[in-house]
Design brief:
Elements: E1 9-14, H1 21-37, E2 42-44, H2 52-64, E3 69-74, H3 80-89, E4 94-99, H4 114-127, E5 139-140, H5 142-163, E6 165-171, H6 184-190, E7 193-198, H7 199-207, H8 214-227, H9 237-254, E8 260-265, H10 270-275, H11 280-288, E9 293-294, H12 299-312, E10 316-323, E11 344-349, E12 362-365, H13 367-373, E13 384-390, E14 394-403, E15 409-419, E16 428-433, H14 437-446, E17 453-457, H15 462-471, E18 477-478
Parallel strand pairs: 1-2, 1-3, 3-4, 4-5, 6-7, 6-8, 8-9, 13-16, 15-18
Antiparallel strand pairs: 10-11, 10-17, 11-16, 12-13, 14-15, 14-17, 15-16
């Protein structure tokens, strides 16, 4: 995906000086080979860390190799001091894992005791306040660890993306959208930069782009090709193309100290009268290229969408957790994928979801805004420009990283499926089935005061998102609990 980091992994092994260094060296070679067989591009650090000087040499070597993520591998017990010094000074996410014993025939001269070494390493990393990723099963054979390192590469992509991110906001929020509040300090705590602007700034940028600009014509052709038979308003495309070009040029010119940029933009109600369209289709196109644009100036929403993109390595979207699903909409033989009818809901937004994430789509007008801003007896005009249709059925992850009203960071992750069911409604919309969602909705989304927007990855990305959020220092992560496991404050005597 564009606008996402490329992860360059270094594998650095360590060896305690009272263990044979060849044991660590041979195990390192086997691990590197397993990683390469798994399709991972890794740099094998030639320096084996036995002491502090080795740690500094290894840091220099992996920096010269361009590594931005590192795996510290205990080929044997390992020196916890030097390895934690490396982890503290390395400029990027770090994973720590260790070697399992290979055979009963090598438990004298070939025993590495790395199971024990992981305990000491963890303790010393804690003493130095160094956050690292430790897998659920951190000790294993080379082929086992290769899969866990592949998972870490995705986690590292998320962490690196956030560390290099700038959010461009054009606001303020629409009236009565207090749920989209965005305390700034938690963003800075994450390392995210924020540039806030006004709607007038956005209008000025749009007006600077001429319809005669050759780039506008190219974008119009791209839109025409993408929409195909769904191109209901070809006369509108030049305006939308000018808006898209204004946003992309602004981002390119204002990244400053950062590498990646995303948007949180005002989209109604004043927008339509000033610009003459709704921005939804343009938002969908930018998201398809790795630049999420959240609705209603939802700064934490676009950040959440970006994390979903990094976790799934594919376009994501932002949806309202919008409405319940009528009983008569679901056929008796519909597979609810482990959920119950009460766990179903419709995820909806006006038309911001990338076309690649939809089963069918066409350009339409925004019905809700049309009721508010135009005479329903007239043909739609300023409310045209949505991309509407059914969301692509398949696995999905609903996710939110939020700065609370109290200035704390908290998050939720829930996996489920988008059902291949006709929602019988408008907008970009789909029926979600998330097991145990009904209680999760009450005790986490409502109980923890999360807003109505959730980011959606069109994949099973809960594992990656959970580990990345933890590695960024956020421990408050909610997930759906099964029946019998109570949420804090849940009434144990409740009957329904």
């Amino acid at each position: 995906m564009l606008n996402s980091p490329d992860v360059k992994l270094a594998i650095v092994t360590v060896s305690r000086d009272c263990f044979p260094i060849e044991l660590a060296r041979n195990r390192m070679a086997a691990l590197v080979e397993s990683c390469r067989q798994a399709g991972l591009d890794v740099h094998a650090c030639g320096t084996i860390i036995e002491n502090e000087s080795d740690a500094m040499s290894a840091l220099s070597e992996v920096a010269d190799a361009g590594a931005n993520a590192a795996v510290l591998y205990l080929g044997n017990f390992g020196p916890e001091g030097p390895l934690s010094i490396f982890a503290k000074r390395f400029d990027g996410p770090v994973m720590v894992c260790a070697a399992a014993e290979e055979s009963k025939d090598s438990l004298i001269d070939g025993r590495g005791d790395a199971f024990c070494g992981m305990l000491n390493a963890s303790y010393n990393l804690g003493l130095r306040n160094v956050p690292v990723h430790i897998p659920q099963t951190p000790v294993g054979l080379a082929d086992e660890l290769a899969g866990r390192i592949a998972h870490f590469a995705t986690v590292a992509r998320i962490v690196l993306g956030v560390a290099g991110l700038k959010i461009f906001a054009f606001g303020p929020r629409p009236q009565d959208f207090y749920a989209c509040n965005a305390p700034i300090k938690p963003l800075y705590d994450l390392g995210v930069e924020l540039m806030e602007n006004s709607e007038l700034d956005l209008l000025g940028l749009f007006n600077q782009v001429s319809e005669d600009d050759p780039a506008v014509g190219k974008i119009v052709q791209e839109m025409t090709d993408e929409l195909g038979a769904g191109n209901a308003y070809p006369d509108l495309l030049p305006k939308l193309a000018r808006f898209e070009l204004a946003l992309t040029r602004f981002a390119e010119s204002n990244l400053g100290s950062r590498t990646y940029g995303i948007f949180a933009n005002k989209c109604w109600p004043a927008f339509e009268s000033a610009f003459g369209f709704v921005p939804c289709y343009v938002n969908s196109r930018l998201a398809s290229r790795g630049v999420p644009v959240s609705c209603e100036v939802d700064i934490y929403g676009t950040l959440s969408e970006y994390l979903c993109q990094l976790a799934s390595d594919s376009p994501a979207t932002l949806l309202d957790i919008n409405n319940t699903v009528p009983r008569d909409l679901i056929e008796k033989d519909t597979d609810l994928m482990g959920a119950e009818l009460q766990d179903l809901f419709m995820g909806f937004h006006c038309g911001n979801t990338p076309s690649a994430c939809m089963k069918d789509f066409s350009m339409k007008y925004q019905l809700i805004m049309n009721r508010l801003l135009e005479d329903p007896s007239d043909k739609p005009d300023i409310t045209r420009g949505t991309l509407e249709g059914r969301l692509r059925p398949g696995p999905a992850t609903f996710f939110r990283l939020q700065g609370s009203a109290e200035g704390r960071l908290l998050s939720y992750v829930a996996e489920g499926n988008i059902l291949d069911v006709d929602p019988h409604s408008f907008g970009g919309i789909g029926v979600f089935a998330i097991p145990d969602f009904a209680r999760f909705y009450r005790h986490v989304l409502i109980g923890r005061r999360f807003p109505h927007h959730g980011a959606v990855a069109f994949a099973r990305s809960g594992r990656e998102l959970f580990d990345a959020v933890r590695l960024m220092g956020i421990d408050d992560i909610s997930t759906p609990l099964p029946k019998g496991a109570l949420y804090p404050g849940e009434n144990p005597f409740e009957k329904t």
